Amino acid sequence: MLFGRSATHTLPDVFRELHDERQHRWSRQWTIDQKNYRRYWESRLGDMPCIGLSPRGVTRIVEIDAKKNGWSDRTIRGYLRYMKEAMAYAQTQLKWIEERHNGGPWHHDAERDSAVTLSRSEMQELVGGTDAARRDGDQ
Questions:
Q1: What is d(CA 37, CA 78) in angstroms, rounded to the nearest whole number?
Q2: Three-class secondary structure of residue 2 per DSSP
Q3: pLDDT digits (tens, 9 = 90+) for 59-111
Q4: 136 vs 86: CA distance, rounded Å
Q5: What b/e string do you get for 98-128 counting C-beta neighbours within 10 Å, with b at 16 or more?
Q6: Is 107 helix (H, G, I), strand (E, B) or coil?
């Protein structure tokens, strides 16, 4: 425990803090978009720790869902931008992760094409939610 909080923070913890801190400044439409992005990531990754998250894995999940749902590049960038902003907030404002846990790049390769679907456990493994990643973050 660190200041009454668990040393391992989850993505929903980060999202909650981010929304609590910034939502009052967002426009109505931006708020709707941010809530949609938050729900998407919470449904896709659950209570995964924010330490050990792989930008490459996160990008891959969005690309797979984009292919399945016919999302535009703009929509893909929105989902990735939300996660990038949340992780930057966790690093710079909350001090819950170090720069080494927030590695990039966070980008979408519009040329990649895939029809793959993944289970939640496969997604968590892809983005680094393994026990090894959790242990590494606690060191």
A1: 8
A2: strand
A3: 999 999 999 999 999 999 999 999 999 999 999 999 998 887 776 666 666 54
A4: 20
A5: eeebbeeebebeeeeeeeeebeeeebbebbb
A6: coil
